[in-house]
Amino acid sequence: MPLKLLRQTPPDPQQLALQLDFFSAPPASQPAVDQPAPRQQQPSPPDAPQAFPSTGGGDAASVRKRRLQVGEHLLEYRLLRSKRRTIGFLIDDDGLRITAPRWVTVAEIESAIREKQRWIFSKLTERRERSARRLQPQMQWVDGATLPYLGADLTLRILSAQGSGIAWCADSRQLTVSLPPDAGEQQLKDRVQGWLQGEARRVFGERLPVYADKLGVRYQSFALSSATTQWGSCTAQGRIRLNWRLIHFALPLIDYVIAHELSHLREMNHSPRFWATVQSIFPEFEAARRSLRDSGPETLPIF
């Protein structure tokens, strides 16, 4: 669900931004991992493989499909022989691909697979879940439709009226939009987006002082952003920008981004000291960070 790329001013060199994977199209493949071939074997934790850039050099005609029983799972993988010196693991749309030197035996390759099985099954599961979400039907902008707001769904109610108006009922979690009978879908979207942005401005404005006080810092200003590549940003002068689409998510995720940006007023970098600062005011930052990273564009309505 690509969003329209907006024109943006050149980035401020003194600005640090919290990048987001959320608005980007899913990568063609998961990050690959590299493992030394047996003659150069260096043990590494099976659940923490090191990333490496995908390499070529293989002969596509030499790809062979194989199966391996790993515990209770029958794992299918494609084996590609190449001139490389290490065993490479790659998760893509077709599953697991192994690229290995020609002189490494299948038994040695399958031993390496078992060592990395936790990483392999974790990435295969993530891939399947992401593919399933992409296949879900897009939201229909009709009466009774639902869309995410602060981590839970709200129900859209549409009334035909001479004037325009919008009303929120927290008890029933219904957002009622009144529009003229001849109003089109885009007018409905604009009304809902305007309301969500107003809510974002209100919620962010309430949460920023909370974490600024905890950290003992002052920010100069904050504004909403519609950036397609950032959750938020902070300049050395204390100007905070927060992506309005955060309003779709639960409050802890919003708080994490706010804590992240305010922490840059202490550390204008992403050093260990910076992350220690984030943790000091938002101890659950790692879980929130993972949740944001795992959120896909297919979970949000298209405006």
TrEMBL record:
Region (Disordered): 23-62
Species of provenance: Noviherbaspirillum aridicola
Record-given protein name: YgjP-like metallopeptidase domain-containing protein
Xref: Pfam families: YgjP-like
YgjP-like metallopeptidase domain: residues covered: 86-294
Gene3D superfamilies, per the entry: Metalloproteases ('zincins'), catalytic domain
